[in-house]
């Protein structure tokens, strides 16, 4: 369904600036028996709200189609586990969470982050819409309610569990079509002295690093701090802090409380909004230039891959993240150039990519085959993957990163 009004301010003044074509759903991986079946495809376009500055896609796929049987599991990444431990340390110490205080996470996935809070003695509960993932979390000792979060879910939660001292939403807000309903639910579920922490990819590094591959149908919105501040204020929440995190290509963790709450507003909130304003993220001309750079990046990547193929190099791909599916689709990369991918997630191994039907194998295939060059689709985990593939690199293998323009990984591995 095409969206004609802004998800934050409801204005109808949306300007199209980037069209990535019609794509299959990025997390709809296929079994061999499904390859002959028709695949649903949807337009994938980015628009800018000229009134409030929200960058968003103008298509909506029903959430039941996207999330009820989900395949992304956060616990397969070592980096996510480290980040979860850091979040738990920060929030329990900074906001004086005590043993037994209630932490609620929306879209809690397999409970990786909540387990970090459990280690600090917090009572941790998740709300997760994917049946299969919620079952995993419950089996591993993290109480998880299978539901979509919103006002109604928040009210049910308060009746059954009481208000939350900490509401946590990691990389979920960008997936939500009803932003106002979600934020209203945040406000409804908070203890009077509670805080809400929301983590999203930040629009500034998205712009600066040309992260167009992070656009897919699950990611409806791409947030600046300024837009989030205005959105929260509509529901009586004041933004009191922003922490920048390197995870997922550059994210922010924004912290809010009820208006007039006990915690002071940190100066870095204004500093980051000033940086956003300096980069003119609310101007259409900024995003028109972005789109031209995206097309140029695509041409450079295809030219480099074709050069490698002409030289007789054997190629493969590492990672089958949703962002990789956007890149493969937009660049027209199929089995002719990338004959297979490898991925650490057992949930993806043995399946085929949406759209291009590239087979997905286990990472040890790189050592069996020793391809000359591996295109790193999961480029946001480059250092972690390089450590895991140290032997492949030692044997002369090369990792190629596609974003912001094609380049070889030149990091250093620990001795």
Q: How is this structure best described in words?
A:
By secondary structure, the chain is of the alpha/beta class. The protein has 2 domains: 216 residues, Vaccinia Virus protein VP39 (Rossmann fold); 106 residues, 3-Layer(aba) Sandwich (Rossmann fold). Helix content is 34%, strand content 22%. It has a 7-stranded mixed sheet with strand order 6-5-4-7-8-11-10, sandwiched between helices. Strands 14-13-12-15-16-17 form a 6-stranded mixed sheet, with no helix packed on it. The chain has a 4-stranded antiparallel sheet with strand order 1-2-3-9, with helices on one face. It starts with 13 loop residues before the first strand and ends in a 7-residue tail after the last strand. The relative contact order is 0.12. The model has no long low-confidence stretch (mean pLDDT 93).
Present the secondary structure layout.
Layout: E1 14-24, E2 41-49, E3 55-57, H1 63-67, H2 78-94, E4 102-106, H3 112-118, E5 123-127, H4 131-139, E6 143-145, H5 151-161, E7 164-170, H6 179-189, E8 190-201, H7 203-208, E9 221-222, H8 225-233, E10 237-245, E11 251-258, H9 267-278, H10 284-310, E12 315-318, H11 322-331, E13 341-342, E14 360-361, H12 365-369, E15 373-376, H13 382-388, H14 390-394, E16 398-401, E17 407-408
Helix pairs in contact: 2-3, 5-6
């Amino acid at each position: 369904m095409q969206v004609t009004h802004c998800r934050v301010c409801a204005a109808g003044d949306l300007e199209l600036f980037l069209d990535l074509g019609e794509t299959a759903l990025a997390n709809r991986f296929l079994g061999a028996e499904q390859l002959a079946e028709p695949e649903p495809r949807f337009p994938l376009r980015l628009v800018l709200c000229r009134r409030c500055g929200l960058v968003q896609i103008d298509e909506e796929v029903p959430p039941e189609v996207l999330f009820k049987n989900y395949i992304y599991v956060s616990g397969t990444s070592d980096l996510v586990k480290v980040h979860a431990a850091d979040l738990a340390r920060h929030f329990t110490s900074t906001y004086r969470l005590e043993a037994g205080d209630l932490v609620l996470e929306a879209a809690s996935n397999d409970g990786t982050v909540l387990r970090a809070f459990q280690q600090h003695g917090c009572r941790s509960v998740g709300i997760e819409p994917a049946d299969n993932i919620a079952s995993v979390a419950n089996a591993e000792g993290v109480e998880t309610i299978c539901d979509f979060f919103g006002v109604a879910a928040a009210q049910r939660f308060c009746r059954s569990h009481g208000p939350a001292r900490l509401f946590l939403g990691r990389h979920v807000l960008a997936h939500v079509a009803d932003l106002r309903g979600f934020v209203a639910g945040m406000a409804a579920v908070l203890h009077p002295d509670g805080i809400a922490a929301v983590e999203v990819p930040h629009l500034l590094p998205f712009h600066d690093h040309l992260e167009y591959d992070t656009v897919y149908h699950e990611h409806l919105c791409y947030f600046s701090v300024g837009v989030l501040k205005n959105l929260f204020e509509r529901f009586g929440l004041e933004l009191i802090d922003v922490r920048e995190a390197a995870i997922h290509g550059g994210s922010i963790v924004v912290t809010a409380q009820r208006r007039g709450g006990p915690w002071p507003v940190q100066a870095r909130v204004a500093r980051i909004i000033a940086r956003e304003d300096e980069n003119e993220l609310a101007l259409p001309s900024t995003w028109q230039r972005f789109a031209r750079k995206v097309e140029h990046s695509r041409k450079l990547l295809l030219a480099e891959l074709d050069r490698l193929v002409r030289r007789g190099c054997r190629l493969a791909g590492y990672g089958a993240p949703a962002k990789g599916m956007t890149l493969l689709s937009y660049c027209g990369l199929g089995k002719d150039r990338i004959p297979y991918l490898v991925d650490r997630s057992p949930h993806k191994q043995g399946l085929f990519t949406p759209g291009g039907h590239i087979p997905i194998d286990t990472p040890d295939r790189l050592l069996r085959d020793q391809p000359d060059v591996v295109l790193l689709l999961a480029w946001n985990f480059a250092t972690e993957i390089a450590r895991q593939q140290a032997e492949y690199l030692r044997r002369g293998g090369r990792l190629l990163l596609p974003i912001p323009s094609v380049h070889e990984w030149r990091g250093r591995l620990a001795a």
